[in-house]
Amino acid sequence: MSAPASMNPTADALNANLRAVESTIAEAARAAGRAPADITLIAVSKTHPAETVRAAYAAGCRHFGENYVDEAVQKIGALRDLHATWHYIGSIQTNKTRPIAEHFDWVHTVDRARVAERLSAQRSGDRALDICLQVNIDRDPRKSGVDPDAAATLLTTVRALPNLRLRGLMAILDPTAEPLASYRRLRDLFEHLRPLAPGPWDTLSMGMSDDFPVAIAAGATHIRVGTAVFGARSRAAIGPNEAARNLE
Ligand SMILES: *Cc1c(COP(=O)(O)O)cnc(C)c1O
Hey, what domains does the chain have and what are their CATH numbers? Predict the structure, then answer.
């Protein structure tokens, strides 16, 4: 499961990558009249071993994104001593909801009621699971995510579930889409849904290595960045999340 050694970034490389990503975030935020501190960097650590995550933590990362349940549960266990926040960003198979509910702090990829109901039922302890609804904003038939027209109905179901705390929306773009237009559509939907939302409706999870400055310009609050932080993944074919589903 570990990447070959040549793929593990050194502490120096991680530091340099992170400082570069942080300065790009700051620049994009200022250009949009926003505070850099209002944008949370989620370092997407899928396929990278626990030691690499630990090195990224030492370099300053506190939020990590993972796509593969078994791999993630192992890493979260190995890194219990860190004060990291774990975000599940992969596609969700109904029979894998329990380990997600038990081990993660956030789930960004809730796109159907049945998954939300299971996550709520399987969450225990006194902390609610923070949730984003994944929206298929480009209506790409190969992508998961709720259709934009069905998002209000899903929201109404999720907000009634006791152990979930609904925070906002997430999207993965169709690679052929024009990112600024798509991200703005997600933000418009987010504002449109605000009157239906229960508590904090404060999260727009959008933007990856190739386009996070554009996402920040459109209002992203959480960006999910893998390659620009850790370097190329050894399983290069693995991308966002329909590719992940094919592997499972
Ligand atoms: C892998 C992944 C990312 C990070 O992609 P990079 O291009 O490496 O930054 C972000 N979001 C999701 C949902 C992913 O699966």
Answer: 11-230 (3.20.20.10)
